[in-house]
Design a protein that fits this description.
By secondary structure, the protein is an all-alpha fold. Helices cover 71% and strands 2% of the residues. α4 packs antiparallel against α18.
């Protein structure tokens, strides 16, 4: 990217507003963020007068994948006989994401630096949404028939607050790394260590490795003097080595610290419980992931439908395999009605079949 490009004030404001609306939820066929609603609504009209955007390579590939996901969703809901209230929400989610994605390609393609004000707005929105626009907690309460008396403020750092922290870390990296590479890398590493201590192992591990990678990159750039002198093979080899060595080292460090109580009594008890799981510490702490994999194993091509209820008892089977013991009062109120999936890839695949899985795998890889 050309460092001499200066974003226009109007475009900067638009990017900031889009970021501020990312986690500001409104009720529209279920809960949807203000940014998705805004971009999705005006996007259809905009694309009718800018059809060439569909022909650009990134947008075209994205549109094809979205179409595949939508066809798979419609076919799945018809086969499964999903209620209208659920399949309308499922189809609308795919449609809004598709239109929004193409429009975002068009907006950020000409000036990629606009990602910075967008991420700053998203970081602010992520914090505000925890206390004001509690769309997730409200949706959970409605799914439980109004019985669930839980707000995001009552949830743990690992389950909710760490997400706002992670968005802030991404915004920090996008805005300060260019000027203060070493300091930014150390801050990211510090956030990762804090996440590990507070129980968010996956996010903490990713941040620690990202911080150390960025620190190495900053040192490499300072030594080489320019990007052109960094050998691609050397860089790729370093990333692969870091991923392997870093993952093993972090997991070993976590196991040692947790087993000796250095991370607190709660983390010690959690580690002892998960270490007794037949799936080990890593998957023993991923009950939602295990439940999603079990559902996928039973039906890998045809999904279970939009917002599919857990009629197959996948959550119970996953708890039996992992040794997970939830809070009983929470279980009585919520009863895990929806099939848990843990990630967008599993969610799209389990709910809408192979087409949903292909879409998210392609997004992650490309």
């Amino acid at each position: 990217m050309n460092s001499r490009i200066r974003s226009s004030p109007a475009a900067t404001v638009v990017a900031l507003v889009l970021g501020l609306g990312t986690f500001t939820y409104v009720r529209f066929i279920g809960y949807i963020s203000f940014s998705e609603l805004l971009v999705g609504s005006i996007g259809v009209i905009w694309l009718l007068f800018n059809t060439r955007e569909w022909l650009r390579r990134p947008a075209t590939g994205f549109a094809v994948l979205i179409a595949l996901w939508l066809v798979s969703a419609i076919a799945t809901d018809i086969l499964r006989g999903s209620p209208a209230a659920l399949y309308l929400r499922g189809w609308a989610r795919v449609g809004f994401l598709g239109v929004s994605g193409v429009l975002f390609f068009a907006f950020f393609r000409k000036d990629p630096w606009l990602v910075r004000p967008y991420l700053i707005g998203a970081a602010i929105s992520g914090v505000v949404s925890l206390f004001v626009f509690k769309g997730g907690a409200t949706e959970m309460k409605e799914a439980a028939g109004g019985l669930l008396d839980v707000t995001w403020r009552d949830m743990s750092w690992r389950d909710y607050y760490n997400y706002a922290c992670n968005i802030f870390v991404v915004a920090l990296a996008a805005t300060t790394f260019r000027r203060f590479p070493r300091a930014t890398s150390l801050v990211i590493t510090g956030f990762g260590l804090a996440n590990l201590v507070l129980g968010s192992r996956a996010a903490g591990g990713i941040q620690v490795m990202s911080g150390l990678t960025s620190l190495y990159l900053a040192q490499l750039l300072a030594t080489a003097g320019s990007r052109s002198r960094i050998l691609p093979g050397r860089w790729i080899a370093f990333l692969v080595g870091l991923a392997v060595i870093g993952s093993v080292s972090l997991m070993s460090a976590y196991e040692h610290a947790a087993s000796h109580g250095w991370l607190g009594e709660e983390q010690k008890n959690r580690f002892e419980l998960q270490s007794q799981s037949t799936l080990g510490v890593v998957f023993g702490g991923r009950v939602a992931f295990v439940a999603g994999v079990l559902a996928l194993k039973d039906s890998p091509v045809v999904g279970y439908g939009s917002w599919a209820e857990d009629t197959g008892g996948y959550m119970a089977r996953a708890m039996s395999l992992t040794g997970f013991v939830p809070d009983l009062s929470f279980m009585r109120q919520y009863q895990y009605r929806r099939i848990p999936t843990h990630s967008h890839i599993l969610e799209g695949w389990v709910e809408h079949g192979l087409g949903g899985g292909i879409f998210w795998i392609a997004v992650v890889l490309f």
